[in-house]
User: Fold this.
Amino acid sequence: MKIVYSIIESPSHPALSSLYAECRLEELRFTSMRKAISALKKTRPDFVVADFLYGYGNNYAGVNVSNLDVFLYSLQKYAPDAKVIVLVSKEEQQFVPKLAELFSLHGTLVYPVSGKQMQQLLDG
Assistant:
């Protein structure tokens, strides 16, 4: 069974557990990057679905683009073939290309995200 990491850091993150089950994916849910990074050492995901939060000002010490950078660097080491799907607000969508310059993204979906949109990325 393939594994999907759901990294939930936004109230806009959709509830897709039933879709993942239909797609025969085991979902591991995380509400913090620290826990998701720790899990990488034990369980390698096939997919990562994560909320994108842009690093305005010095939230991320000016070094990182977003909340996902540190996790994605770890993902390169532990699960380089994992497909990353980023969920983003319409207002922050303009910043996703900066992240895509650093990391390979399988897809980007703007809130609100439907099950049909997610299924297309999971199938593709």
